[in-house]
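can u do me a favor
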């Protein structure tokens, strides 16, 4: 099976590695070619344009920054793709983008479209242990099984309505973004009160409100190690999408607005490219 991966940032690179490890024929493209070129040593073909990348692909994965960038790239790529090409849209975008704009673009070009954002960060992407939240026609499940089997430990078929995968992704990310910001708040408060913040993590261990992510991000904050697994600027984008979806759905966005403000504050302070755990910097000078 020939798969084109459009976008080789942290997530796209990990997904390409997982696809290659599964024996699939992988072509990659990135707007900055150097970020894709490193994958050539691992067996990927490196294309010079989106249209070149998808020319003989059976499936295309888009893992780009936002809905507009996906639309721009695929408007160039889809006319060069075979009729009925499978399009896995894995980027985190707005509900409107996923369910309307991109679905219409696919329909107009004869592509078979699945709204399929993923849960996970750098390590799960590299290990093929993401969770795919897929929404699309039931008839596409078997054709996409080799792709999702390569990149994910779990595939959740949310519904047949494009946009529902993105809806569930925003729900999940609202929890993740809030948990990381809440962890930063508690670690910062412990330090401010003169406590060793490790005592907070130890206290939480094994309790009814414990979570593995609490310890991963809490340790990063305590040690000030913020190598990007998912960057602050990505959290800024996603919390903005979440807050907008909340307002559109009639859900009070007061808490999410506060959480989003802390990520924006960390980004404005120069930590935008660091891991989202660097939201800690918004709580401590």
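np, heres the sequence
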């Amino acid at each position: 099976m020939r798969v084109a991966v459009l976008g080789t940032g942290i997530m796209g690179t990990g997904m390409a590695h997982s696809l290659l490890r599964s024996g699939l024929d992988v072509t990659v493209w990135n707007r900055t070619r150097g970020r894709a070129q490193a994958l050539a040593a691992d067996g990927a073909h490196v294309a010079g344009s989106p249209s070149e990348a998808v020319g003989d692909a059976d499936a295309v994965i888009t893992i780009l920054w936002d809905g507009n960038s996906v639309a721009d790239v695929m408007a160039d790529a889809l006319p060069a793709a075979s009729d009925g090409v499978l399009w896995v849209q894995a980027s985190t975008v707005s509900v409107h983008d996923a369910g309307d704009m991109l679905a219409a673009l696919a329909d107009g070009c004869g592509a078979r479209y699945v709204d399929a954002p993923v849960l996970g960060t750098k390590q799960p992407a590299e290990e093929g242990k993401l969770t795919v939240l897929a929404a699309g026609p039931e008839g596409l499940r078997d054709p996409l099984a080799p792709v999702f089997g390569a990149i994910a430990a779990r595939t959740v078929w949310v519904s047949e309505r494009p946009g529902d995968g993105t809806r569930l992704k925003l729900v999940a990310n609202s929890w993740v973004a809030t948990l990381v910001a809440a962890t930063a708040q508690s670690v910062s408060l412990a330090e401010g009160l003169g406590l060793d913040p490790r005592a907070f993590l130890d206290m939480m261990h094994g309790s009814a409100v414990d979570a593995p992510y609490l310890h991963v991000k809490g340790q990063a904050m305590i040690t000030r190690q913020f190598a990007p697994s998912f960057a602050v600027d990505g959290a800024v984008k996603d919390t903005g999408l979440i807050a907008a979806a909340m307002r559109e759905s009639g859900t009070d966005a007061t808490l999410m607005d506060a959480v989003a403000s802390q990520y924006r504050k960390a980004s404005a302070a120069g930590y935008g490219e660091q891991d989202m755990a660097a939201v800690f910097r918004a709580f401590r000078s």
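The two ends are 51 Å apart (CA to CA). hope that helps!!
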